[in-house]
Amino acid sequence: MDPKPLRIVDYDPRWRERFAEVGSALRAALGARAVRIDHIGSTAVPGLAAKDVVDIQITVMDLAAADGWPDELIPGVVRRYRGIADDHVPPGLVADVGEWTKHYWASRRSVHVHVREAGRANQRYALLFRDYLRADALAAASYGLLKRALAEWAPDDWETYFAVKDPACDLILAGAEQWAARTQWTPGPSDV
User: Fold this and answer.
1) Does the first or last residue of the chain, that is N or C, have fewer Cβ atoms within 10 Å of its Cβ?
2) Looking at residue 67, what DSSP letter applies?
3) CA dist., res. 100 & res. 109, Å (int)
4) Helix ranges, the chain (H)
5) Nearest to 18 by CA among 109, 88, 110
6) Other C-beta atoms within 10 Å of 69: how many?
7) Which tens digits make up the pLDDT trace of 101-126?
8) Per-residue CA distances from 14 to 10, 19, 44, 51 (Å)
9) What whole-number distance in Å separates Cα of residue 7 and Cα of residue 179?
10) What is the rounded CA–CA span in Å between residue 73 and residue 23?
């Protein structure tokens, strides 16, 4: 998968700054074509250990609209898949391909940009997962410990990392869904 060794680092407040810089550039480039631009993933959760990669989700009304976007979305952020990529489908959720497809751009290991369609399962998952971990410090800390253990156990084995991490995220999602129902969660405003 990725030739770079897996490394989990302590939370870095500069991740927010990196998101703000790239997110603003994406907003300037895309304007209203991006319904939302959000900081997602572990670097979006204060205090959570993570890979030093800022994940950004761009939400669009129609994923096909991103087909015509340039291969270099903004300077240094380039398309990684010419076709459509798929996200991991948690067990028991709708396996409809349309619910889990995305487009994907990235810079050299510091930013990953996931373009997903509004209202799809994968678009909601990213926002719910982030918001739940922000609200539940124990779940976030436990997730951080799991990622650190995986990085120590298999630092060069990305397949094993994702084979263990994806089901762990599915367990977290189960708690997140209960939290969402209890709190009547809805995504807040776009980050940019």
Assistant:
1) N
2) G
3) 23
4) 14-30, 97-100, 121-135, 137-153, 158-183
5) 110
6) 17
7) 999 999 987 999 999 999 999 999 99
8) 11, 9, 11, 13
9) 30
10) 12
| CA distance linking residue 74 with residue 131, whole number of Å | 27
The better pLDDT of the pair 83, 1 is held by: 83
| DSSP SS3 for 121 | helix
Secondary structure percentages of the chain, helix, strand, coil, to 5: 45, 20, 35
111, 22 Cβ separation under 8 angstroms: yes
pTM: 0.94
Residue count of the chain: 192
Sign (positive or negative) of CA dihedral 172, 173, 178, 183: positive
Residues 29, 2, 86: CA angle, nearest 5 degrees: 60
What is the H or E stretch that residue 104 is in?
Answer: strand 101-106
Distance CA(67)–CA(83), nearest Å, equals 8
d(CA 160, CA 90): 17
Tokens of residue 9, six digits: 């680092």
Q: How many CB atoms lie within 10 A of CB 29?
A: 15
pLDDT digits (tens, 9 = 90+) for 135-159: 999 999 999 999 999 999 989 998 9
Match 């436990």 to its residue by tokens. 142
Amino acid at 43: T
